[in-house]
Every structure is written in C-alpha cells, then in structure tokens.
Amino acid sequence: MRGAVWLVLIACVVVLSFLILKKRLGIGWLTVFGAHMALVAIALYVINYSGWITQVYIPINPVTMGAVTVLGLPGIAVLLGLKMILFGQAM
Question: Stretch 7-34: mean pLDDT, rounded?
Fold first, then answer.
C-alpha cells in the first residue's frame, strides 16, 4: 500500500512539473497560491476565534485550507455546513 501511495505522489509531481514547464507559468503562480493560502488561514482563524460562530470550530490543516483555497469563500460555508450536518452541531 505504501508503494502505491509513493508511486501516485511521484506521478503527480512529474505531471505537475511537466505542465508547469510546458505552459511556462514561471514562479508567479506560486506567489498567487501562497497569498490565497495565507488569506484562507486568516479567514479560518477569524471565524474560529472571533466569536461570530460560537458552536463550530473548523481546524486549520492542509485539507481544510486546500478545500477553501480551491472553492473560495463559499468553501468556508461548505465546511461549516458539513460540520453541522455530520456532527450534529447547531448554531
């Protein structure tokens, strides 16, 4: 099982590297992605510790940050909805 995971990881890195070099994206996309990740972390921190939503806590980890980075701010609403539905937390 570990071998399969490493194989998938290596294949993904190779394909991503090929796409970056083929499209000649440069380093600019990393700056934009890093800025989005920072904004997502700040948004999740504000939601968790501001007191706006007192019953729900969304952990700040790579999975939640990735989901919100891809989905944007509606991703936070999706995570809040899933948390409340799956774990039965009410606002």
Answer: 80
- For the whole prediction, is pTM greater than 0.85? no
Residue showing tokens 């190779």: 14
Neighbours of 68 (CB within 10 A): 25
Question: What mean pLDDT is predicted for residues 27-40?
Answer: 81
Residue holding tokens 């570990």?
A: 2
Rounded distance between C-alpha atoms, residue 45 and residue 48, angstroms: 5
Report the alpha-carbon distance of residue 32 to residue 28 in Å, rounded: 7
Nearest CA-CA partner of 47 in 16, 88, 83: 83
